[in-house]
């Protein structure tokens, strides 16, 4: 099966829950906005890839799922109906959810999951955002097949801060497993070992010609010579950061995580799970009598196994009407392949991320908090849990793999945290005493301590409304240093600094960029290093912060942020019985 391009109109590892509450209007109604209705039916669908067919959990029978298109200021009402045996919830990744925390979607954080035969209406307004975001399941590993683009166009009459593209094309990267991903992670959690890796990467659901039995399952993008295309790229892969390049073409980065950046050219880009990147592709002035691979493969920093394969789509030029008699048959044109960085090229990763700067213009300012009310230092990394009695475990030295923030491995509650807070039932559900810094400091990136056992609990950080926060996230060498893409729900943040080794609170802040730092919702903590972010806790709710490597979230690399004071109607509070 071939998939053509679809076009748009032109115009956990670490979990931290933040709670910030104040009485405000739940759904502001901006002028000239409209309400858009979508219906998501979660159903089983037979999907065949790599000559393997399996019953797959999908939205509306599509893999990937349907795209949502809206404009800044629009209100979205999305009814999700669960027709499968799995519990379901949907997260609208990157949407600020201003005063609409019940619609954020992570199961047992802002809602109970949607049970079989039940439904839930996600009701939120897009405030002050435009660009590329995405949606995905937010329970267990179901997001391996339940995901899709969420495209936010500027308000009518508002141009992009770059030349208007001829066409817009979403490119969404994913991972395909021949086995059921739910069975894979369930087995890993039981044995304590690492889960089996994926069998292929995909572009818009298709693995492409470099995999066995997949020449017909290739995403092909047809372009015209001398045109500019806006590629809206999303990394929906479960566990892998990806390098991406188009052979013999230069890309101009203009937007990340639905925030405009100062444009810069690159042959290759790096995109972590959860992140989005908009780039301009300027095609060649004439038909090049060639085809070009659009390729992606992983950036790897950890010591575990990984899917060491490459996904490719094909960029094809349309023949001009007057030159139908080309010297080359379209099927015999040469295909050029891009040169991607080595799998562990941290130097490229660092140079690429350092080029990302906010536009910081009068129309799109970078409102970096200059005064900091609360400072935090969180370590993020792996660890272990003891093996149960009478069980043989497959983790390090007969233990079970775990992951933690500041050595606290997050225990998912059985009652949604926002619901527990709202109804004053937090006792026994969570504790609001997450440490502001590691209780036992050590040389975080040096020789690791002998004791790798984590503590376990459901602990949150509680912030007063409008607190300005500086958070340092420090990787550790416990069971190996590794890059961790951290996603914060409910907020964007500014990446004011990053470096390698241990963060130095006396020297490193002097190098912070407080003028035009990139603004994101997901950032990579460098392998063996640290990253500093700042944000204003101006969004009431309970918010999840976690590593977007799904295996790390499964192991407990997450935390919660709470910002108390907000009250909402009881009818909004419950999606199904906890």
TrEMBL record:
<keyword id="KW-0439">Lignin degradation</keyword>
<dbReference type="InterPro" id="IPR001117">
    <property type="entry name" value="Cu-oxidase_2nd"/>
</dbReference>
<keyword id="KW-0964">Secreted</keyword>
<feature type="domain" description="Plastocyanin-like">
    <location>
        <begin position="437"/>
        <end position="557"/>
    </location>
</feature>
<keyword id="KW-0186">Copper</keyword>
<comment type="similarity">
    <text>Belongs to the multicopper oxidase family.</text>
</comment>
<dbReference type="Pfam" id="PF07731">
    <property type="entry name" value="Cu-oxidase_2"/>
</dbReference>
<dbReference type="InterPro" id="IPR002355">
    <property type="entry name" value="Cu_oxidase_Cu_BS"/>
</dbReference>
<comment type="function">
    <text>Lignin degradation and detoxification of lignin-derived products.</text>
</comment>
<dbReference type="InterPro" id="IPR017761">
    <property type="entry name" value="Laccase"/>
</dbReference>
<keyword id="KW-0479">Metal-binding</keyword>
<feature type="domain" description="Plastocyanin-like">
    <location>
        <begin position="168"/>
        <end position="319"/>
    </location>
</feature>
<dbReference type="InterPro" id="IPR045087">
    <property type="entry name" value="Cu-oxidase_fam"/>
</dbReference>
<feature type="domain" description="Plastocyanin-like">
    <location>
        <begin position="45"/>
        <end position="155"/>
    </location>
</feature>
<keyword id="KW-0052">Apoplast</keyword>
<dbReference type="InterPro" id="IPR034288">
    <property type="entry name" value="CuRO_1_LCC"/>
</dbReference>
<dbReference type="Pfam" id="PF00394">
    <property type="entry name" value="Cu-oxidase"/>
</dbReference>
<dbReference type="InterPro" id="IPR011706">
    <property type="entry name" value="Cu-oxidase_C"/>
</dbReference>
<keyword id="KW-0325">Glycoprotein</keyword>
<keyword id="KW-0677">Repeat</keyword>
<dbReference type="InterPro" id="IPR034285">
    <property type="entry name" value="CuRO_2_LCC"/>
</dbReference>
<keyword id="KW-0560">Oxidoreductase</keyword>
<dbReference type="InterPro" id="IPR034289">
    <property type="entry name" value="CuRO_3_LCC"/>
</dbReference>
<dbReference type="InterPro" id="IPR033138">
    <property type="entry name" value="Cu_oxidase_CS"/>
</dbReference>
<dbReference type="InterPro" id="IPR011707">
    <property type="entry name" value="Cu-oxidase-like_N"/>
</dbReference>
<feature type="signal peptide">
    <location>
        <begin position="1"/>
        <end position="33"/>
    </location>
</feature>
<protein>
    <recommendedName>
        <fullName>Laccase</fullName>
        <ecNumber>1.10.3.2</ecNumber>
    </recommendedName>
</protein>
<keyword id="KW-0732">Signal</keyword>
<dbReference type="Pfam" id="PF07732">
    <property type="entry name" value="Cu-oxidase_3"/>
</dbReference>
<dbReference type="InterPro" id="IPR008972">
    <property type="entry name" value="Cupredoxin"/>
</dbReference>
